[in-house]
Amino acid sequence: MGLKIENxxxxxxxxxxxxxxxxxxxxxxxxxxxxxxxAGKTTTIxxxxxxxxxxxxxxxxxxxxxxxxxxxxxxxPEERGLYVNAVVKDQLLYFAMLNGMDKKAAFxxxxxxxxxxxxxxxxxxxxxxWPKSTKEAFIEDLNFILNLNPKHISIYxxxxxxxxxxxxxxxxxxxxxxxxxxxxxxKKLLKDKGFFRYEVxxxxxxxxxxxxxxxxxxxxxxLAAGLGATSFYNGVRATRTRSILKYIDGxxxxxxxxxxxxxxxxxxIMLNLRLDKGFTFxxxxxxxxxxxxxxxxxxxxxxxxxxxxxxxxxxxxxxxILDSILVDLLK
Length: 331
Fold this sequence. Notes:
Layout: E1 2-12, E2 15-26, H1 41-49, E3 56-61, E4 64-65, H2 88-98, H3 103-116, E5 123-128, H4 135-146, E6 152-157, H5 165-168, H6 176-192, E7 196-199, E8 202-204, H7 211-217, E9 230-233, E10 236-240, H8 244-248, E11 253-258, H9 261-272, E12 279-280, H10 281-288, H11 292-295, H12 297-303, E13 307-309, E14 313-316, H13 322-329
Parallel strand pairs: 5-6
Antiparallel strand pairs: 1-2, 1-3, 3-4, 6-8, 7-8, 9-10, 10-11, 12-14, 13-14
Helix pairs in contact: 2-3, 4-6
């Protein structure tokens, strides 16, 4: 006796992941399942664990339906089962929903776990502008998240990039004025709840700004390690390979770009103007040894109505969208 699978079938659209798969794992013995990517190994494991439901077939343990059998199943995924670019909260949410919890119930349980383990400082990210949703639904989600008492909240507009799944299925984005309407209502709600906006998409309680991301926005040097990671150091932007075999072989760098002064200036202006405080003329001079207002005199005149310029520096007026201003400001 032991684990027995008979005629297991599972399809995803037109792709048949499992085609009448049968196997047995006897008690006290080790069974290895080998196959290329897409062969159905993960789908089989998830079926055994009850994470997904096959269309056909049966899974039993000692002759009893696996869902009724009194058996504990341990599952240890390989490293990429935990997503290295995701924070703890996102990992917990992902696995909770995999096991059938709805999003709001999962968030509530996650907060209990975080609080119980003294995690008092955590950030939540939201994306707005999903074409099949509404402004009201997004604000409802935002209100729910505010009840979890995070210290930092990021809200980003949905971007449908070429080559992505959403682009390939021809999902049409919402109109720009709809994006703006959602953003401004969310910004007002966050302000009312004690969050201040310190960057276009980022809101925090006092003292809880993201030090990690501020490094990027301020144009400071940062190092990086690992597959696909990008660093910026001494004017050189370097991206690591995504191939684990090349990385192990010591061939770390996929490409390097030595940014000239023109690129560095544009990056400095673009990133610093994302910040509510903008940048000072001294910061610009110390970095580039030139006067910003002299160098960008024509561009500043074309965008002056959107900017706050005083004797110290320049920043964007809060009620304006940054992207349209940068088009006219950057050379």
